[in-house]
Amino acid sequence: MRIDLVTVLPDLVRSPLEHSILQRAQDKGLVEVHVHNLRDWGLGRYRQIDDAPYGGGGGMVLRPEPLFACIEALQDQLGQPYDEVIYLTPDGETLTQPLANALSLNENLLLIAGHYKGIDQRVRDTLVTREVSIGDYVLSGGELPALVLIDALARLIPGVIGDANSALSDSFQDGLLDFPSYTRPAEFRDMEVPAVLRSGDHGAILEWREVHRLDKTRTRRPDLLPPSDREESIE
Ligand code: ADE
User: Fold this and answer.
1) Is the CB–ligand 1 distance for residue 134 below 6 Å?
2) Is 7 in the pocket of ligand 1 (CB under 6 A)?
3) What is the pLDDT of residues 119-153, one digit of tens each?
4) Are 92 and 129 in contact (CB under 8 A)?
């Protein structure tokens, strides 16, 4: 998968892309992330990229010319249309695991991280194919949401995560939260790891995990369950 990320703060996004799973995904050639500075397409001597909103009010809006020039140049370089041109914005479609799963099947994505008071509506109307929010809160720019989206997608690409089962067994992957995990020591400050997890009985372990996934989902996120599954607890 190739991801092009357009931002006014390229330095802000570089470090997270150079660590852990995102770095490994790129080292293995499974994900390519290219960061582009919108200011390179800025207007005039001062490389202007934003302006005051028509109609007044606070904040600045990213002008259409730099965004059109940038997106069209990247599109030309790619030599084919992007599968999706995604604008990160709090008024977009909320990112969920099913949306991440669907987007992870794409080959080429262009992400636009807005800033200030957002981007000119004409860019959204003509070039953007999808608008994604990472939740009902407002951040100061789309850079962190873009990184969240990239991380959520990269870990779903086959080969990125060592354990093939790991991404599939995550919380939300089948609509349930994850089960509690323990490691050594078996006893720590009078707190014991449940005996069944040390029993070696695979059937019993699977059952314990399912029961705890369901119980945790019932108490923390009953909204994820059909009404008939919301009652009853293991306690
Ligand atoms: N930009 C600012 N806040 C955002 C959010 N919650 N999701 C996506 N992009 C954003």
Assistant:
1) yes
2) no
3) 999 999 999 999 999 999 999 999 999 999 999 99
4) no
